[in-house]
């Protein structure tokens, strides 16, 4: 992540005061885009809180944070009871994204057979490996997505390529590069004339606050739009492709992403606009077939609907109420887009059809 000329990852190890122990550094995403602040997480409880309050967010990043959270727990107490309690505490923070449980199970499997004195170091190594693998996978996703954008651009030589995205699936949602935004960054760096329509993504405005922040720092031309403008732009030929991320993908190719994604997929389908979903292998849930029926949808606080955070004229970050006092709010954080609406799944291994056979072609031997 390039921020004012300095390269950042979204999560990193920091030496802690204890002999041989470590803390975790993260970017506080709740204060972006108005304030860039880092936080130090020194305990499993702090890691769990950072995930649940969305200091860190995005399926791949919360998986890595969870993995490091187990390391923090094992530094304090490497026993079996501590490991089990930390696993449950971290796993309960965000129920929809499959990456979190996947990363926790991977670290647990690594450390359980070891003597307690060896567990914290092993957890640190495994969490670091997961983080590095995430960067490599996102880099590869970017290359495969770039090929798609190059084909679209070649069909319209000299014309600007307009891509619409929803929520934030960029650097801030992963360790680096991002999923849906990785092909955009690759295209921009390759000199393609790419422009991004950025959905604001209510209620937490991850598009307006996070995606726009990233694109601005990278110098990618972009325009923030209200969520309901996407269909209008597609009707008037101003969107060449839609690309989004996903928090959980079923073995049949259904994708679960930020609330509002399904409506964009319907509009894209109606207007003949290709709809791509970018994801690493860790986001595939092979145990689930029907996403609408089987994926648990996180319901977050109604206050995210009734209130909004921004920066006032005095420069202070503040929260204001939008709705009448007493009006109820309902806040499902995700929806499911059926595979039939997905043009292709852009993975680190290539582009798959949004079908069980398509995914098996890439991952069947794993």
From TrEMBL:
Gene3D superfamilies, per the entry: translation initiation factor eif-2b, domain 1, Translation initiation factor eif-2b, domain 2
GO biological processes: L-methionine salvage from methylthioadenosine
Pathway where it operates: Amino-acid biosynthesis; L-methionine biosynthesis via salvage pathway; L-methionine from S-methyl-5-thio-alpha-D-ribose 1-phosphate: step 1/6
EC category name: isomerase
InterPro entries: IF-2B-related, IF-M1Pi, IF_2B-like_C, Initiation_fac_2B_a/b/d, M1Pi_N, NagB/RpiA_transferase-like
Residues annotated to bind substrate: 57-59, 94, 206, 257-258
Catalytic activity annotation: 5-(methylsulfanyl)-alpha-D-ribose 1-phosphate = 5-(methylsulfanyl)-D-ribulose 1-phosphate
Active site, per annotation: 247 (proton donor)
Annotated SUPFAM superfamilies: NagB/RpiA/CoA transferase-like
GO MF terms held by the record: S-methyl-5-thioribose-1-phosphate isomerase activity
EC number per UniProt: 5.3.1.23
Keywords: Amino-acid biosynthesis, Isomerase, Methionine biosynthesis
Residues carrying the site annotation Transition state stabilizer: 167
Role played: Catalyzes the interconversion of methylthioribose-1-phosphate (MTR-1-P) into methylthioribulose-1-phosphate (MTRu-1-P).
Family label: Belongs to the EIF-2B alpha/beta/delta subunits family. MtnA subfamily.
The name this protein goes by in its record: Methylthioribose-1-phosphate isomerase
Gene giving rise to this polypeptide: mtnA
């Amino acid at each position: 992540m390039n921020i004012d000329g300095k390269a950042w990852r979204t999560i990193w190890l920091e030496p802690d005061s204890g002999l041989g122990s470590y803390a975790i550094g993260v970017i506080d995403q709740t204060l972006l885009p108005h304030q860039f602040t880092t936080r130090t997480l020194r305990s499993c409880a702090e890691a769990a809180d950072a995930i649940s309050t969305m200091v860190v967010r995005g399926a791949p990043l919360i998986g890595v944070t969870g993995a490091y959270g187990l390391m923090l727990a094992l530094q304090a107490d490497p026993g079996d009871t501590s490991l089990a309690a930390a696993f449950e505490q971290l796993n309960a923070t965000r129920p929809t994204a499959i990456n979190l449980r996947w990363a926790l199970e991977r670290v647990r499997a690594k450390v359980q057979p070891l003597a307690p004195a060896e567990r914290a170091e092993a957890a640190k190594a495994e969490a670091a490996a997961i983080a590095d693998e995430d960067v490599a996978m996102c880099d590869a996703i970017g290359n495969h997505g770039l090929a798609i954008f190059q084909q679209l651009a070649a069909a319209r030589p000299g014309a600007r390529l307009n891509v619409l995205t929803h929520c934030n699936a960029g650097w801030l949602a992963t360790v680096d590069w991002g999923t849906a935004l990785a092909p955009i960054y690759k295209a921009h760096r390759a000199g393609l004339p790419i422009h991004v329509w950025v959905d604001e993504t209510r209620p937490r405005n991850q598009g307006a606050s996070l995606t726009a922040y990233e694109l601005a720092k990278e110098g990618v031309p972009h325009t923030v739009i209200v969520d309901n403008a996407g269909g209008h732009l597609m009707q008037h030929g101003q969107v060449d492709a839609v690309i989004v991320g996903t928090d959980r993908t079923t073995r049949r190719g259904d994708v679960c992403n930020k609330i509002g994604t399904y409506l964009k997929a319907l509009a894209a389908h109606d207007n003949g606009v290709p709809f791509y979903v970018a994801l690493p292998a860790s986001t595939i849930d092979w145990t689930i077939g029907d996403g609408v029926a089987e994926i648990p949808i996180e319901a977050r606080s109604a206050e995210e609907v009734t209130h909004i955070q921004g920066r006032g004229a005095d420069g202070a970050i503040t929260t204001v109420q939008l709705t009448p006092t007493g009006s109820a709010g309902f806040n499902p954080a995700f929806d499911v887009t059926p595979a039939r609406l997905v043009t292709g799944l852009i993975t680190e291994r290539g582009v798959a059809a949004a079908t069980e056979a398509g995914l098996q072609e890439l991952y069947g031997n794993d």
